[in-house]
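S.,

Sequence below, as promised.
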Amino acid sequence: MSTSTVISKDGTVIAYSKIGTGPAVLLVDGAFCHRAMGPSTPVAKELSDSYTVFTYDRRGRGDSGDTQPYDPHREIEDLATVAAEAGAPVHICAFSSGVPLVLEAVRHGLAVDKLGLYEFPLVTDGSRKPAPADYHRHLTELITAEKRGAAIRYFMHTGVGAPALTVAAFPLMPGWSKLKKTAHTLPYDAQWMAEALDGNPIPTGRYTHITSPTMVFVGSKSPKWMHHGNTALSQAIPTAHYAELPGQSHRVKPTLFTPTLKSFLAR
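The prediction came back faster than expected:
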């Protein structure tokens, strides 16, 4: 897939790719991920026999710009700009912390045909310890101090809820250097996740603005709190259904996930 670019409303260059033929599908990544790392490009290839699939690098990642200061609303504008290039309204599938970005973009007028939402990390009850009130501030301080490794470990343990022993082994993993390259965008995702990690139920009416057919996906191997949070999300969206995917975890396997996504989009 070749790289193309669009200019977002604030002048930031946003890089994207497209592959395939058919109705447009736009994929939105979660933390760390972009076209060269994460599920979007493999999922796009699996979908490309039936859809024209757009993937893009969220600002600060890959080949996209990173105009400062960061403002979450600018990411909504980025998404809207790429969606317009795809020919909105489009189908959208978002992963992890990309989910709240998409849900808020719809609130601001983004036209969507269908929504696929894969594992929004919502802590809505006592099944997992919530993130502390100073989570975003501390994460930002680590990045400002150029302590990217410490920021990744803090994000994974305190934000994601990964066990301390697992997080301690992260620097030994093959993808560590890639994670460090995009670690400066973790405070961006932390802003999108501010309400999601507080351990409180979803406020009444929070997602009633979503009127497109929606499927909330969760892997069967994901922790209990992820199932609880996404069940609550599916109940908070009037048009949503809930689907548990056998053998899947938060690290979605494109070859196993895509057939279910295709089935939903084809309805």
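The chain has a mean pLDDT of 95.

Coffee later?
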